[in-house]
Structures
1.
Amino acid sequence: MAVKSPKVALLWHGDREARNTATLVGHRFSGVAQVLRGVGIEAEPAVYNDEFADEVRDQLSGVDGVLVWVNPIEQECDRTILDNLLRELSGKGVFVSAHPDVILKMGTKEVLFLTREMRWGCDTQLYSTIEQFREQLPASLAKGKPRVLKQYRGNGGNGVWKVEKHPSDPELIRVRHALRGSIEQDLPLAEFFNQFEVYFNGSGRIIDQPYQDRLIDGMVRCYLTGDKVVGFGRQAINALFPAPSGCASGHAPQPGPRHYYPPDTTAFQPIKMKMENEWLDAMCHILHIEPESLPIIWDADFLFGPKTSSGDDTYVLCEINVSSVYPFPDEALEPIAVATRERLRN
């Protein structure tokens, strides 16, 4: 008797029309579907929305695994309902990546505070309440350097702010939101605090890090499948740059394109060695993560820290992306398929 091929759903967010017309032919995940089929796994589309969560639950109850690409915030909605659904399916034996509990350990901005003592860390503060934020942020700003504030969960620059003392008015602070289209503003500190109250709703909290002076050198994105580096990205990250001289609107420069590189690219070997030989073990130990539960595809974003006395680069963790990592280098496709097959076998 022929052995039935395992079935994996590729899940992304969409509306009713998107679900009714979903196909993997010509879709952004067509490459993922192709390599999965190449290792003997049947792939099918699964469009999710809170409005038809029960329908998606019924579909996913009939598959062996699900690979998920849904941002922490989608059209002003969070992942609460979806994450509970995925936990339920996982409890019934469906393989889920990334699992919601793994996301909570490594895919929120709190990871920056929890791993601050690692070599990728920096002077990082955590504010759990709006009262703590009001009380302690002034002391952080008094250190003299601009600070970068990040909400607990978010994407696309939403809830990421550069904050610094006003150069001439002690009653004001200068702020810039990283959300595209935002402008640099001068605000009274009390008004700024009021704007931030929404970030503390529910389990919300704020992470506070120093602004990295080498932001102008861009960001390195390290892509991983499980505990193996599978590629890199390099991009100019301009959202928190000061407005160009003479720019009346106060808008930051437009972001540059992201370029993708295979894992054996010479320029990125120092960070690859640090990730695979040092940082991963330390992160898993601190966050209580079993290496075999690391996501099928995830990435860590690094800014350049101060150079060493010998001129070597250092790196500062900017964030870890787990919920919806796409696009990624083509070299990651085959490792994604092979890792999925191994997880299903286990």
Note: The longest strand covers residues 228-235.
2.
Amino acid sequence: MKSPVIILGIESSCDDTSAAILSDRLLLSNVIASQSVHQAYGGVVPELASRAHQQNIIPVVNEAIKIAGIDKTDILAVAFTRGPGLLGSLLVGTSFAKSFALSLGVSVIDVNHLQAHVLSHFIADNPVEYSPPRFPFLCLLVSGGNSQIVLVEDYNKMKIVGQTIDDAAGEAFDKCAKVMNLPYPGGPFIDKLSKEGDENSFKFAKPNISGFDYSFSGLKTSFLYFLRDEKKKKPDFVKENQAALCASLQKTIIDILMKKLILASKHFKISEMAIAGGVSANSGLRKAMVEQGEKNRWNVYIPKLAFTTDNAAMVAMAGYFKYLDNDFCDISLPPFARIVI
């Protein structure tokens, strides 16, 4: 009987330190240590993030191995996020991955963080429910730093067909939340409050961008100026209309995202549709995907909430496919902050 391919995945691109163990496609463990220190600053502070990664990386990896019920000598390769992300944070994960692999005498596999989000749909944490997308499929990848439509022809063949020309959807959520004095990260708070408000209460600017690209800077400006003008008339406007503002803002962002995804689906004649990334946890977006799926006869793939945020399970999954292709990296390769699929 063929022995399983056991991969250790390490993710440290932003402010979550994560380690996961994968046995072929079966997820054995996925440990995440989040950082609360950034909440006081209204955003991630790179220096604080890298220091926290240094504190968390060894305990997190040790816990992942323990939960998986394996010995570290069972690991055949170490997959790590090489980019994109915060360079200081990436350095911690990259340095540990290389050192750990050297100590075991195994190969290292560099993983594109964005590709890993897309491939999170192939994680088999529950074999009974395992039902990944069929190639080719379109994936709407939305997070704090990215808003892209990705054409996925195979696990190692992806092409960005649409992307934001300025701000990302997650960034729009967080920055609009900040002007309403909501805690960081603002996206989850907007999602929660939107359930209590009328999404048709207010109208905000929607961009008119050609092709499948996105733009969210105009919406952000429109929202800021709208609040400024209304607060001049009534100082307590935001406080009194918070839920309605959140619901209307969320609807606008989702409408923008879905319009281009529908266009792409028709253009490429593809009905296999997926979402991924941090914003794919948004309840409104998940609902919109289901509704559009029924309307357009799509096969819709929505990730489990555990795989929407930055996590090492998706890194291990991407690493597994590269392992099958014998696609290993030289140990001298450095991490870098900006990278495309």
Note: The domain at 137-303 is CATH 3.30.420.40 (Nucleotidyltransferase; domain 5).
